[in-house]
Specification:
The chain is mainly alpha-helical. The protein has 2 domains: about 1-375, no CATH class; about 385-430. About 70% of the residues lie in helices and about 0% in strands.
């Protein structure tokens, strides 16, 4: 239901831009959403494996067709390889449990599914591909980034309902928090919400996985759906009309984790986790919420020359997304599932985080508007910077070896490498 509402919202928000959005964009958006819905509804790993592969290939072809820079195209290929790695892990789970479905996930495959979803989301291990441009219309570009994440987020929600004990939980929690904090910091310090869509997904996906590791299924589902729909109003419009700002404010309240809001169940992650994990999750959530309010306040200039029908349709698109999110949360039950929740002193933790996020967003906006803030350059957390350099070094080394073997002395070089390899194998085996 959330993905269908997202598609309808995109179609309505782009209706006024008929000069930019072409029929193939509409067809691509509908086809991509169809694959996303099938991913979410997949009942067994083999079906999900086929759908993941189809979605990955379609997404990679879309990006490679639009991007021309060598570095961007390289990032697309690496992202495809990472997602296919998650698909391989999903296939590996069938070795341990040949016949199972997602209605009741066996405990012995929970780790495989968690790693598969985490790898596809860029959380386990932490990585982020900053793909910009592509010339996509704003709504279609949002779909291309959110739809592939939907199936992985729903898989994580199913894993969180198991009773499995994950090995090395401290390492898992540390990696998840590292990815979530990296995405949240980039979201808070980014230039615009649309440029930082990947950072938003990474930050919220980290909290979704953390709730799954803590075995909080309701909280994991709340964070996952919030990551899909919570920031969509910011992605749809840079200069909204007054009705659009009202509906955007409703989305912000939904992210506040106040009682009876869609993210209320997610507050259990902050009250039921281990102290260090709760502190890390709270810091990530605070930066995500502060960044949301910061981008929301920057959308203050209304375009008065937009036709009335365009403003009405744009507001209707945002309204459908926000209402669907709230209704889905209420139908699923927005009450925290853990017994004794009301006895916890932090039962109204959402109110505190809401107040802190508003203050932090205001302070950050004031700092960025000051001369010192405009000159400041905030560092980005590049978790895979060193590994990326190692990868490029290996590529250059492989090209050098290829050139040597293809040259005039290629046969001699091949014999030399063969002798070196044979000597190394004899030394390693003690022969």
């Amino acid at each position: 239901m959330a993905l269908l509402a997202l598609l309808v919202g995109v179609l309505l928000s782009e209706a006024e831009r008929v000069d930019v959005v072409q029929p193939r964009h509409w067809a691509g958006a509908i086809a991509l959403t169809t694959l996303g819905v099938l991913n979410v509804l997949a009942a067994n790993p083999l079906t999900l494996l086929v759908l993941w592969t189809a979605l990955d290939i379609a997404e990679a072809l879309l990006w490679l067709r639009r991007l021309q820079g060598e570095r961007d195209r390289e990032h697309v290929v690496i992202g495809l390889a990472a997602r296919l790695g998650g698909t391989v892990l999903l296939w590996g789970s069938t070795v341990y449990a040949p016949a199972f479905d997602f209605r009741q996930v066996p405990d012995e495959v929970a780790l495989w599914l968690l790693l598969a979803g985490g790898l596809r989301l860029g959380v386990l291990p932490p990585y982020r591909l900053r793909l910009q441009g592509g010339g996509w219309p704003r709504g279609v570009g949002t779909l291309i980034r959110l739809i592939p994440a939907a199936g992985s987020l729903m898989l994580i929600g199913r894993v969180s309902d198991t009773k499995a004990d994950f090995p090395f939980p401290s390492v898992l929690v540390a990696l998840i928090l590292l990815a979530s904090l990296s995405g949240a910091f980039s979201w808070l310090t980014g230039r615009s919400a649309r440029r930082e869509r990947g950072s938003w997904i990474l930050g919220m996906a980290g909290l979704t996985l953390l709730a799954a590791v803590m075995r909080l299924p309701t909280a994991s589902l709340a964070w996952g759906v919030g990551g899909l729909l919570g920031a969509v109003p910011l992605f749809f419009s840079d200069r909204p009309s007054r009705p659009e700002r009202v509906f955007t404010l409703c989305a912000g309240l939904g992210l506040s984790a106040l009682p009876f809001t869609p993210l209320w169940a997610g507050a259990a992650l902050l009250t039921r986790s281990a102290p260090l994990a709760a502190i890390g999750a709270g810091a990530s959530y605070l930066m995500l919420l502060s960044g949301w309010w910061r981008f929301g306040w920057r959308q203050s200039t209304e375009v008065t020359d937009r036709p009335v029908w365009a403003r009405a349709i744009g507001a209707l698109g945002i309204f459908l997304v926000v209402v669907t999110w709230w209704v889905a949360a209420w139908l699923g039950g927005v009450r925290p599932p853990e017994p004794g929740y009301w006895q916890v002193p932090l039962a109204w933790v959402g109110g505190g985080f809401l107040a802190l996020s508003v203050v932090l967003a205001r302070l950050w906006a004031a700092h960025r508007q000051s001369p010192a803030g405009r000159r400041a350059a905030f560092p980005r957390l590049n978790v895979y910077g060193a590994l990326w350099q190692v990868y490029r070094f290996l590529i250059r080394l492989a090209r050098l070896v290829s050139q040597l073997l293809e040259g005039e002395g290629g046969v001699l070089w091949a014999l030399l490498l063969l002798l070196l390899l044979f000597s190394f194998l004899r030394f390693a085996t003690g022969g």
